[in-house]
Structures are given as C-alpha cells and as structure tokens.
Amino acid sequence: MSSPTRSRFQLAVLPLTISLAYGTIAFAADGGLEEIVVTAQKRAERLQDVPISISAISGSQLENRGIQNVADLSSLAPNLQVSSTPGNASTSQIAIRGSVTHNPALIFDTSVGVYLDGVYLGKSQGSVFDAVDLERVEVLRGPQGTLYGRNTIAGAINLITRKPSGEWTGSVTFDMGNYGAQVIKAGVDLPRLGIMSLSLGYRDEKRDGWVKTNSGSSVGQLNNKDSQNFRLVANFDISRDLKVDYKFDSTKMSQSSALNQLWRADSWLYQSSPMLQAYGLTQATADLIANGNVAQYASQERKTRASVDGPSYERMNVDGHALTVSYKLNDSNNLKWIASERTMRWADGLDLDGSPLPIAHTQRDSHYKQNSHELQWQGNTERLNYVLGYYTFKDEGFTRNPQQYFNREWDMTSNYGFTTKVDAWFGQLDYKLTDAWTLTGGLRTTEEKKTVDRLQIFGMPAFGMSIVKVPAGTHAAKTFQSTTPMLSLGYKVNTNLNFYGKYSEGYKSGGFNGESDNVVDVTTAYKPEKVKSLEGGMKSTFADGKAQVNVALFQNKVTDLQIPVFVATTGSGSIVQNVGKSTIQGLEFEGMFAPMDGLRLQLGYGYLDAKYKRFMDNGVDQKDNRAFVHAPKHSFNLMADARLAKTSVGTLRGIVDYAYTSSFYLYPYQLATPGSTNYNPGYADAAATKIGASGLWNMRLLLSGIPLGHKGDKAEASLWVRNLTDNKKVNNMIDFGPGFGSLSQAYFTQPRTYGVSLSYKW
C-alpha cells in the first residue's frame, strides 16, 4: 500500500453503503470533506471507489472518542453491535446485521473476522486488546467470503497500525480519571538507520474496580483493569522494489473478572432442602443453601457492592509476530507474502452464582497457537485490476475447564482440545466495461480439516462417586469444503454519484461440540453455516463537496443456521446444531455534513427485519416461537465535531456523540408466554433475556495545538466523559434455563467515567 499523508485519514467520508468514516476536523481546500484510502480489497483504493459496505475510523478519532479496542466500536455505525462476553473483558461478541456467535468457548468460530495488519485473529478469546498506534479501523459489512474467507459470514474488522516515519518523532499521553484510572501511552519513531525504520510503542492501563466486595469475599474488587501492551515495528527498504516489514505485539492482562451479578433466582431448588437432598447433596449443604436463600442476592439494579466466595480473575498473555514481504515485479504487478504466528495463554475464574453461597464456581485455562501464510499477486492493466492468492492457516488449542457446584459436592473434570488446518485459493477481478460501468467478480475455494478431543468426568466427592461421561481418547475429525463467489456491478453517473449492486456468499466453519457431555454430540459434526447476500447501494456527494448521503438495502438468506439449542433428551444442555434457515433484510442510511468551516455532523441509521424460515428443535419446527438474537430493529448514531474557538494557546474543539440501540434478545428461547397454548414450561423464556432499548452519550472538550516554543512541538489537553447520563444498561447475560430454576446473571455497561488527558508530541 502506498502511504497517504496523515491528513488524508483525518476526515473521511463513508462513500459506501452503510458506514461512515469517522475522521478529525479536516477539510479540503474548498471547505468540503476530504477522502480516505483503504485496503479492504487487498490494495490501496479511494474509499469512494470501492463497491462494498465499509467504514473507516481514523486513529485520531479513535483517540478523541475514547475508543481503545474492538469492544468500544459498538453502535458507531448502523447494525454493528460489539460487547464483551459475560464475565470477561478480553473476549468479544460481535454482531453485524444480526449474525453472531453466542458461545465464546475457544473451540467455536466467530461470525465476524478480526484482522490485525492483515493477520486473522482466530478466536474471540483474546480479541479485545488495546492496539498501540492504530492508524485506522476498517469495518466491512456483509459476507467477505471471497477475499477474506471462512468465518466472515457477517463481515470483517481490520485493525491497521501506523508505519514508522523514519524520523525522530514521538508522543507521550497521560490519562487520569475517576475510579483511580490512569493510562500511560508512549511511542517513538527512531531516525532512519540505513535501510531500517523503527517504531516502538507502549501502553499501560490501570483502574480500580467499580464493584467493591464485602469482607470475606474471595477478591477485593471486581470490574477493574490492569493491562500492558507493547508494539515494535521494523521496516526494511531492501531495494527500490523489495520491502520487508516485521511487527511484534504483546498484551498482558491480570485483573479481576466482572461481577456475575445475580439477576433472577426464583427456583424451588434454592428453597427446598428435601429437593436438594434428592439431587444427591448432604444435609449440611442442603441446609446451607436453603437457609442462605440465594434469591436474596438477586437484583435488577446495577450493584456497586457484592459478596462472592469463588475464584474471580482474568489473565491473558498474547504474543504476535508478523512478517510482510512486498516485491514489485514491474510498474503494474506486485507480490506480497504475509507470514504470522500468534500464541495465547488465557485463564479465568468465575463465581457463577454471584453470591457468597457455594453454589457454582468455574475456571478455564486455555492455550492457543496459530500460524498463517498468505501469498498475493496484485496487478492492473488499463482497464483491469486483479488480485490472486493462496492462504494457509493452522491452529491448535486446549482448554481445561474444572467446575464445582453446591459446596464442591458436585464437581466436573471438563477438558477439550482441537486443531484446524485450512488451505484456500482466491481471486478477484475488476474490469472497467466503460468509463461509467465496472464489473467485479471473485471466487474462493477453501478446504479445512478439524479435529476434537474430549474428556468429561462428573463427580460427587462427598459420596466417593464419579461418572465418566466422555472417556479419555474420544476423538473425531472431519474435512469441510466450500466455494464462495462474489459478483458486483457499479455505475458511476458522475464523480459525485454512484450506484452499485452486489451478490456475495460466505460461510462460518462447521465443527464439533467440544463442550458437550456425551460422546455422540462430541463426535457428530455440525455443518458450516452459509449465506447468500444481495445488496444495492447509492453513494452521493453534493453541496460543493460539503455533504454526503449513502443509502443501502440488503437481504441475507442463511442456510444450515448454527444455533445453540437446549437438548433435554441428552442432558447436555445447549449444543450447536444446524436448525434451519433465516432471512435478514434491512436498510441503512448515513450522512456526513460540513455546513460551515469548523463544524462536522454525522448521522447513521440502521433497520433490521430478521426472521426464521425454519427452526427445528427436537424434531419440531419452531420458526414462529423462537427469538432472533442480537438483531435490534433500530439503531442510530449522531456525532457533532465543532471548532469552538481559535486562541493564541491552541484550538478549542467540542465532540459530542450519541448511540442508540433498540431492544433485542440474547438467547433463541421460546417467545410464547405462560398460559399460551404453545408454551413449554420445561423451556426457557426469551422475555427473560431481552435487553431493553438504550442510548449512551459521550463528550470531549479538546484544546489542541498548544505551542511549547521548542522546534514547533505541540501539546494537547482534553476533558472527557463517557456514559454521560450514567445509563445503567444491561449489555449481556447468562441464563441457565429451567434446569436451574430460572437462574440468570447480568453484566452492565460500565458507569459514568470522566477524566483529563494530556499529551505531548514532537
């Protein structure tokens, strides 16, 4: 990619269907909006010319709006939802256009691919980290099965870091905030040394927990932060035609877990000593739990103080290496090779009942390693652009998941391991039929082999009993194959008005239920989930380049839909099954306006209509009685970025943004209510896991360009607040179903945070 100047990224306009490019206040010479360059199609292109749904958020706006990682991107554009998974800060749950993966276990694959400088991050665990020196984030919506491949059935998120400048430059930033928050960031570019340019970056964040614990709890606080990130980039200009880039990133996290706040507990199980004994518990434990009455710890208000008696921690160590070699064959052809290796050690401990009673405790200790190689051939003629490539990916992982229940009178030995081997060939051609019409076609063929190994033992130590449910040596393997095409046609009316239509396919990998408690479910593979997508969009620029409006319509038809289904006949709880079909269609509108010098306004709106066409549950089609998850009907975002004053000590700006999401369901439970003819009392209710509509306000007052009088060095100071109105929103939940008597936990958006940020750049 040719490196555009930083100003080119500072105010971008989302030229494409459903996204806005969020940049800083930067205007063209005529006062209009500037453009942005992206690499979404494996080559550098002006965003306005790319016929796909994409947003690009600049590094400066990421900083100004307090966006630290993938989890902070939620609702910044229509039909995008991002949250941390229940109990964990480092594991993401990403939904785009109503497609999502519910279970964050290491063995399952995501619906949205996350990439760091072109390297696929294979799992949702460890995907929430604070990337140092981000230049921009690109969000691609809709299936990306041709250029990105498997597990991008909903879209892809590209995290792109800054390249070394080859000059002596750097910055230091210090943030202070409530809850004892402090963030120290430092980065430096060293002067070019021969053929090498070097950049170093470091970030350290600490914050007290906003949930304090009572005396006797297993940990002093919950929901705190303690993480460190390091980055090294070395670029080597071997010759005019040969470039080599090496990147290393490291993340370390060691903090308490989030509070597993007890949300509901209305079961006879916690109030009946005889029934507890019938479950095989001793009289002492039955009395302890019954007399303790876990329901008294349930609350639907956000708690700031709690009592827990189980392990409550989250630890992560991730190291990543990436090597990119680019060779220019001639003026029209380039070869690129991207090689990577990433290792992760991840562990957590959760007091699942959220109370001081010894009900349910669990831990996970995971090891994961991946490596990949991608070879690309990019080229062009007068009318043709093309990219051809080969991609291979390998990973292996192991999770040890011990669990203890009811004063450790039940316990569980639960281990699984897995491997993946992927080989793929891909290609995409853009042909300019006329000056106005451009035809694009692409194809990818993929073969992947997966294996699983499983052991599970259920024990009752108080009675000297244990039951081997899945014996050691349980193993399965299966090879999956898929071909994913793409075809689009673009029509450029003039430089300010474009239309396009697109057909594309994508898929999410098939696999195994490595967490199941019976051999049949473990060794029976579920099929890949597939999508066929139609999309049409308009991109327009008007008012002398001071306004843009983009509109898109889309329809996704999903087959072999993967959904966790409660299977009462096997006693295995929820396992992933191919339940049938769904159709998701929607509208997206976005606009960006610069009505006057120094003022920029943005608006985005998304509409989703998601329905099951078939949902087979225990042999019965429940398409009209199951909730569609993570598919809010409405979402919109507003942002205003205004220059308030120019003074001798700098430029004063104000940034205000608001993001709204309507209500949605978290679990595909029954929609029927008690008393209705199709209500099943043995099945969980969707209404219990419905997240209400909510909106969040963020604000920042920024004084930039403060002169320091030394060789033009500048400083910057800002006051910021996130969740201005202290919205107490539940953003995720675990529901244990009727087997545990409607026991569920809630996880809240963090409370209002505020602080000051000071930075110095040279």
Short recap of the structure:
It is built from 4 helices and 41 strands.
Task: Walk me through what this model shows.
Helix content is 4%, strand content 56%. The protein is mostly beta strands. The strands form seven sheets. It has a 24-stranded antiparallel β-sheet that branches. Strands 3-8-9-6-7 form a five-stranded mixed β-sheet. A hairpin with a 7-residue loop joins strand 29 (547-566) and strand 30 (574-596). The two termini are 26 Å apart. Residues 1-30 and 568-572 have low confidence and may be disordered.
Over the alpha carbons, how many angstroms does the gyration radius reach?
A: 26 Å
Q: Helical element count?
A: 4
Structural class by helix and strand composition? mainly beta
What does the main sheet amount to?
24 strands, antiparallel
Topology, please?
Elements: E1 37-38, E2 45-46, E3 53-58, H1 59-64, E4 80-84, E5 92-96, E6 112-116, E7 119-121, E8 134-141, E9 155-161, E10 169-177, E11 181-189, E12 196-207, E13 211-213, E14 221-222, E15 225-237, E16 242-255, E17 261-264, H2 273-278, H3 283-292, E18 305-306, E19 313-330, E20 333-351, E21 360-380, E22 384-400, E23 403-405, E24 410-432, E25 437-460, E26 465-494, E27 497-508, H4 519-523, E28 529-542, E29 547-566, E30 574-596, E31 599-617, E32 620-621, E33 634-647, E34 650-661, E35 664-665, E36 690-691, E37 694-707, E38 714-722, E39 730-735, E40 744-748, E41 753-761
Parallel strand pairs: 6-9, 13-18
Antiparallel strand pairs: 1-2, 3-8, 4-5, 6-7, 8-9, 10-11, 10-41, 11-12, 12-15, 13-14, 15-16, 16-19, 17-40, 19-20, 20-21, 21-22, 21-23, 22-24, 23-24, 24-25, 25-26, 26-27, 27-28, 28-29, 29-30, 30-31, 31-32, 31-33, 33-34, 34-37, 35-36, 37-38, 38-41, 39-40
